[in-house]
Amino acid sequence: MIIQNMFYDDIDLKINGVVKVDQNADEVLKQEVKEYVITKDIRKHLIDFFNHYGSSFEESTADVGVWISGFFGSGKSHFLKMLSYLLENKEIDGRTVEDYFREKFDDEATFMSVARAVGGKNQTILFNIDIEGSINKDKTAVLRVFAKMFYNYLGFYGENLKVAKLEQFIDKKGKTTEFRRVFEEKNGASWIESRDAFAFFEDDVVDTLMEVLGMSETAAHNWFDGTETVETSIAQLVLEIKEYIDTQTKYFHLLFMVDEVGQYVGDSIDLLMNLQSLVEKIGSECGGRVWVVCTGQEAIDEIIKTRQDQFSRIQARFSTRLCQNIMFLYLNRVEET
Description:
The protein is an alpha/beta fold and 337 residues long.
């Protein structure tokens, strides 16, 4: 007998040495979920997280911030990605992610808090903020990345807020399908393929706006030629997020799962304040139906320890904290060990 044939899985399978949150091909997803090992400590803070998260299906909460800390290579990005897979509970090879994870737990009773939360309708927006963020890190940079990813999630062109806002307006008018059809008739290429280079198709865009929205030629050109920067605010973005979740079912939850936030924020007072204000507004307005889960190489306490007077409130915004260095999760109401 050949030793290689004694193993259940293919031992020649290529191992992905570094897990990245933006790798989401089906084969990568299948391999990562099947081979993820639930250690005793990982199981403990998975259960603690889902106990806290699961309670938001029953009662409103403003404690929607989760901070995962750990040094490079400690597995925080891997954990974030697995958490995203589990929450969305997609089907892989005819089985749900929940089924794969159930096998990794010792007993069904221990898994119940996970199963209850996964049984709701969860959608995740998973991204690396250092990759998706702009090079220009002004004081609203965190907000702009969240806005970009939210619009992308809705199917709009989040890379350009001017275009995204136009698409959002068209969608609210119920004319998205018509707009895309008319543009393709005039341009020869689909709107989705062309919108990143919309500036090169002025005549087609203007003609489409006139035909679909009934805009005058002057108004359509004014929109196209406008050089003003489209801005948004925390209040405006959270309002749009709330309007979206209000159109969903009662148990719908949306989670922003953001890798490398600690690295992106760094020691910037402005960026940390921007993050704090955004999470605080989401918590107060969305009633626990929208969560923000972040990773960083430093614990949130370490990031702010030299600025206690300025940032005492942000610790409360991230009341759920996972330390990948020692694989421990604690909540405000749980005694730290």
